[in-house]
TrEMBL record, chain A:
It is a peripheral membrane protein. The keyword DNA damage does not apply. InterPro entries: AAA+_ATPase, ABC_transporter-like_ATP-bd, ABC_transporter-like_CS, P-loop_NTPase, PstB-like. It comes from Paenibacillus taihuensis. One of its GO terms (cellular component) is plasma membrane. Keywords: ATP-binding, Cell membrane, Membrane, Nucleotide-binding, Phosphate transport, Translocase, Transport. This is Phosphate ABC transporter ATP-binding protein (PhoT family). GO terms for biological process: phosphate ion transmembrane transport. NCBIfam families: 3a0107s01c2. Residues 10-251 form the ABC transporter domain. One of its GO terms (molecular function) is ATP binding. It comes from the Bacteria. Its main location: membrane.
Automatic annotation (TrEMBL), chain B:
Keywords: Cytoplasm, Phosphate transport, Transport. Its main location: cytoplasm. NCBIfam families: phoU_full. It comes from Paenibacillus taihuensis. It comes from the Bacteria. Pfam families: PhoU (PF01895). This is Phosphate-specific transport system accessory protein PhoU. GO terms for cellular component: cytoplasm. Residues 19-107, 122-207 form the PhoU domain. Belongs to the PhoU family. Plays a role in the regulation of phosphate uptake.
Amino acid sequence: MQTTAAQTLIDIRKLNLYYGNFHALKSVTMDIPEKAITAFIGPSGCGKSTLLRTLNRMNDMIPGTRIDGTITIGGADIYSKEVDVETLRKKVGMVFQQPNPFPKSIYDNVAYGPRLHGTHSKSKLDELVETSLRQAALWDEVKDHLKRSALSLSGGQQQRLCIARAIAVGPDVLLMDEATSALDPISTLKIEELAQELKDKYTIVMVTHNMHQAARVSNQTVFFLNGEVVEFSDTEKLFSNPRDQRTEDYISGRFG
Amino acid sequence: MMTKRRELDHGLEELNELIIDMGRRVETALKQSIEALEKVDAESATRLIREDKELNKIEEKISEIGSRLIATQQPVAKDLRRILVAFKIASDLERMGDLAVDVAKVVIRLEGQALIKPLIDLPRMAQIVQMMTYESIQSYVQENVNMAYKMAKDDDLVDALYAQIIRELLTIMMEDPRTISQANLLSFVGRYIERFADHATNIGESVVYLVTGSRPDLNA
């Protein structure tokens, strides 16, 4: 199903996921290329967020979840018994729908992860905070108030802070679950621009209800329906001349 | 869930109807321009030129509706192609209308003259092109790619007739230089009708693009 020549980072093979009796993902197979933006689209309940959450094992916390098939990231099976979930989540960061900064200072939000993973040197932390905030396109706005509470920031700034926090621990993958749906159009555009820049360093996988966002931002788009992958194509192709009639019907607003 | 597409579907339907209307008008304009030529009827020719303004207005309307749909409805995939194709076909049809006007202008310049020869091949050529125009619009309405390809094949026939007309007119001009000015105008008419057919072929290409998403070259 893969369409570009780029190197695969995330390799999903015959993945089935059940919430109790509900078969939420049905034999999903795909290769997600590295250093590109892959968008998941589809109607509510199609499995796109579920799949996103399998990539850093967030579903582990939901009782009654059963999973078979394999997911490897950079060749390593992330569901093998040896995997330490904390380490996995350091490598696979996540940004959520609602910005969720800690009720701490801007500085401490970004430094939180590195401290947790054992970095305590002040100069090292200062450097990490600055580079992370710069990468998240927030530095210029906050550099003079790093001690201020993160909650004093606007929604869009908070979301960029959450991205900086995810970046600070040196991930390979950034998962964005509807990361702009609670933001105004200008903040949304900023995050979209930011994602474009970040894809040079990170592999980004985003779930979005906003099809036009997927069309604007992503390199590849995956269309899900009822837990199955209907189409995985280059974004340009999927939105201009999709292979599958169901994709055409969905992106044209005929259902969903 | 249909309600959210109401505006888009309604607009696309409007575009469709306008294109069909333009097609019908252009087909008639070609037919009447050649009839006016055969009878050297300057009055009909003048009316034809007046009526062409309506075609320009319809093209503008298509352009307005299409831009509005793009700006407000964010169409993608085939919906977007429908709009792009409507722009393109409207522009071809508008050009075809202009070519019928060019023929009508020749008629006005010939007013009061007897034709240097009875017209045989020009009306025959025009008939084929009129059919091509009809089929190009039908292939659009039915989204019929095969019909579009079949229609485009007739362009070879038109080109052959055009070459024949030019040969014949050259002979007439060599025989009697006094015919040159009229023969020259008649060869222009041949050229206008030949161009008319090329636009019909373009419409066929737009139909193939609408249906398949790929751009063929039916003139090749």
